[in-house]
Amino acid sequence: MKANTSLVKFIKKSRKRGFDDFEIRKPLLKKGWPSEEIEKAFYVLKPKYKSKNKISLYLNPDVLKMIDKRAKKNMLSLNEQIEDILRRSCINMKKTTRRIKCDDRLVAIFSREKRGRKKK
After folding, report:
1. What is the mean pLDDT of the segment spanning 48-72?
2. pTM of the full structure
3. CB 44 within 8 Å of CB 3
4. Which of 40, 43, 48, 72 is the most core-located residue (most Cβ within 10 A)?
5. Residue 70: which residues within 8 A CB-CB, separation 6 or more?
């Protein structure tokens, strides 16, 4: 897959300056870059992971602030707090006895439905 080299360079520089991919895509689209060209450039820069234990999340800034605040309260880094939330959600998911359709599992992990022991 051949990508526009100047676009790839621009994305690299923007990332070094601290912009995330969403913040880079938005102005490029506004300037008239075709989305297919933009996606090719991001694809070329995509890290080639050998393991499947890495994910990318794009969070609303308000949600990010809330998680960061919780992380500081728990004396964790932001990454550690997000990992803890996911881990706890998965553990709680294993404890549930009801059957969930396969396609509903991811939704159920982030659900606010009460699970576990009932309060007395």
Report:
1. 80
2. 0.41
3. yes
4. 40
5. 81
